[in-house]
Structures are given as C-alpha cells and as structure tokens.
User: Which sequence fits this backbone?
C-alpha cells in the first residue's frame, strides 16, 4: 500500500505530541496499518522555531490553507483549537476531499452537525476521539464496543483541572482560590480558568457523549452547566462525614420525558470507583442494559495521552480508506437518518437527590418547620447533621440529604425555607447521584 500522507494544523502541546508519537512509533504503526503514515505538510504560527519535524521531509509553513488544499494530503489533523478558524480549515479540508482528525471538543459540540453533514456528502471521515477525555478511548467504546446495548446513563469526570482542585480541597483541606492558583502555576488551568472551573469544557464533551449514547443531535446550547467555584471547604468536609465525595460530573441520562444533559458538582458515594478518581485523571462510567456498568479511566489531557487518541484515529482512517463511505461506522454511531429528535430536559425537570446546607437558629421547632415545607412538596429527608453552635453564636449549620425529587419542587420548597425567620441567608444546594 502507498503511504498515507498527513497534513498537521498546529504544533503546540498536542500537535507536537502527535508528531512525536507518529515519528517514534512509525514502525509499530506501519505493522498495524500495512503501510507507512507520513507527515508531509504542517502549519503553525512561529513554525521556524519548531524542531520536531525535519524540514527536508516536511513542508513547514504558517498558512493552514496551504495544508488543507495540498492535493497530496490524505488526512488533515486539526489541533489548533477554537471555533472560527478551526471550523474554516475543517470545512475547507472536507470540501477538498480530505479526511479530518480533530481534538477540538468545542468545534464538534457547537458545529459538529454541520461538519458531519458536509463530511457525509463528500464521503470522508471526521474522527474526534481525542476531543473527549484525552487518551481514554471512550468514543470507540461507545460507538463500537457498546453498540449492542441501549445506554441508560453515563457520568463522567471529564475535566482534569476541576478534579485536581476538588481532590486538593478534600485531601489537604485547602480553599478553592488557593488550589486554583496552584493549578494555574502548574499549567493545569489557564490564566482565565472559566472554561474549566465553570464547566464549559466538560459541557462540550458531555454534549458529544450524549449524542453517542442516545443517537440525538449535538445540542451544546441545551446542556446545563454549573461550575465548582462556589464549593466550600465546609461542603467537602460535610460530604465526607456523610460518606460522599464531591466530584464535578457530566451526566447524561435517558428518561421517559427526554434526555438530561447536565454538568455540575455532585455528591457521590465514596465507595463508588469513580469517586476515587483523583488529581487530573478522567473517568467515564457508562450504564447499559446488556453489559451493565463499565468504567473507562485514564489521562484526560497532556501531550502524548491526547496524541495517543489522535494517532489512533489516523490509524483507523488509514485502515479503512478503501472502504466505501456507506460501509464505515457512522460518525455518531447511529445512521444519520436515524438520529432522533428527543427532547432535552430543562433544569427544573431534572430528577435527583440533594445535599442542602443552611444556617439555622438553634431553637426548638426549626427542623420541624423545614421538614413540613419539604413534605408539602413530597420531599423526604434521608439524613441530617446539625453542628454545635460556635461560642457566642445563636445559629448552627444544618446539613440535610433529600430523597429523589424533581428540581422544580425542590426549588419551590427552598424559596419557602429561605423565607423563614429562623433561616439566615441562602441555602446551599448540591445535587447527589448514587450511580447504582
């Protein structure tokens, strides 16, 4: 077989890692594919400072257009990130009959439907394993390995920065702001950490996972997103007392009313395997009807872990380049014509349990008033912790765990509880999942 020729867009952390893996493992990859895979063209800003690729063998430039229009390039690998320019490059590559590999979760989550339609019309493949959970092969697992199953729900720790912060808060008793500053110093978080700590990065990934799981269209704008910046050391400690850990989860669930897609801090039982995924590691737990629960764990970011997924996609495409487009695995695992228009539920329709923390007057009857208001909404209390009042104070921290309830009912009850004279300030609400 003739060599498969690669055009690289971007030589940053992941681009450099991809070039390194392709060059270092060239012989092993060739044995797997049956032909050589060669980088022949690469574009990146400041390309002259790049020394990974040999200018005698690879055309180096700063013009992405030159790569995506190069008639000798078989596969364009987009590793520049962002929305606008990356989308332009991917669409132009497809227009020129190139297969595409990308690690760009934001691009797929927001523009994936348009990109996949263009690829289908041109008979080319868009592969995106590296867009979710770094080196963990979760896309292949859901699209192929679990193809016999009806997936019921999935829950994932899919942002390493947030997981690192929550792990440090739990293990070392540190505050959010302190750990965030360290995460930035270590390079785990950007100078502007909003995408990581407010859940946007995880929401991009969850949007794609939900489409793979349920055969629905990509709908990032309907994914509920809540960050971890309001989690306090008190919440972390109280959760531990009750046998739970707080993780920043992406959750997608199929219900009779529709699909839930939500990213938020979540209490989960400490005995669950996923509760023990710490530091910058990622994990995705998938519950399916035939196989039951399966857990996928590994490095969610980094040069070579992500490059591992990028190169695996390149290998998959190279292996099937002579296969007719209609005989290849569908890009979302479901045939395009069978993608369902299943409703995505709004926040007030979510159904889960809750951890609630409030500051209450230390006097008789307060807990009775609270439980009465909950009972009016059909909510029962599963556990209670009442802390001792501090010297000179008349209020105590009251921590409650609720039964499973529709969020609308919980919010209505909390409005009434916050209006009680015995309750000071607002009630902290964190969702709970038992993942059983």
Assistant:
């Amino acid at each position: 077989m003739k060599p498969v020729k690669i055009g690289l867009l971007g030589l940053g952390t992941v681009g450099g890692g991809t070039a390194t893996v392709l060059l270092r493992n060239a012989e092993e990859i060739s044995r797997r594919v049956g032909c050589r895979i060669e980088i022949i063209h690469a574009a990146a800003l400041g390309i002259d400072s790049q020394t990974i690729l040999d200018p005698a063998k690879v055309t180096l430039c700063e013009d992405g257009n030159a790569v995506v229009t190069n008639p000798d390039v078989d596969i364009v690998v987009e590793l520049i990130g962002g929305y606008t320019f990356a989308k332009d490059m991917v669409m132009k590559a497809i227009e020129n009959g190139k297969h595409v590999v990308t690690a760009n979760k934001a691009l797929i989550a927001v523009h994936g439907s348009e990109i996949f339609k263009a690829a289908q019309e041109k008979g080319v493949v868009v592969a995106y394993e590296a867009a979710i959970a770094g080196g963990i092969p979760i896309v292949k697992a859901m699209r192929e390995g679990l193809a016999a199953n009806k997936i019921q729900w999935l829950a994932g720790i899919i942002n390493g920065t947030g997981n690192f912060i929550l792990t440090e808060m739990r293990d070392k008793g540190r505050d959010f702001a302190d750990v965030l500053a360290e995460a930035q110093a270590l390079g785990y978080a950007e100078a502007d950490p909003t995408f990581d700590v407010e859940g946007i990065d995880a929401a991009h990934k969850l949007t794609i996972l939900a489409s793979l799981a349920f055969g629905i269209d990509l709908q990032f704008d309907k994914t509920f997103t809540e960050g971890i910046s309001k989690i306090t050391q008190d919440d972390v400690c109280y959760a531990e007392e009750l046998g739970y850990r707080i993780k920043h989860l992406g959750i997608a669930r199929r219900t009779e009313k529709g699909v839930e897609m939500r990213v938020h801090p979540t209490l989960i039982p400490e005995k669950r395997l996923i509760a023990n995924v710490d530091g910058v590691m990622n994990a995705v737990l998938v519950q399916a009807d035939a196989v039951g629960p399966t857990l996928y764990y590994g490095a969610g970011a980094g040069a070579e872990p992500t490059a591992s997924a990028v190169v695996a996609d390149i290998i998959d495409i190279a292996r099937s380049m002579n296969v007719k487009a209609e005989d290849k695995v569908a890009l979302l695992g479901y045939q395009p014509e069978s993608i369902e228009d299943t409703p995505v539920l709004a926040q007030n329709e979510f159904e889960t349990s809750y951890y609630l923390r409030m500051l209450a007057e230390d006097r008789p009857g307060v807990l009775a008033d609270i439980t009465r208001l909950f009972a009016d909404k059909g909510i029962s209390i599963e556990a209670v912790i009442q802390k001792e009042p501090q010297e000179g104070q008349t209020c105590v921290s009251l921590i409650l765990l609720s039964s499973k309830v529709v969020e609308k009912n919980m919010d209505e009850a909390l409005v009434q509880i916050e209006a009680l004279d015995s309750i000071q300030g607002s009630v902290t609400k964190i969702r709970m999942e038992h993942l059983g």
User: Anything to note?
Assistant: The mean pLDDT is 95.
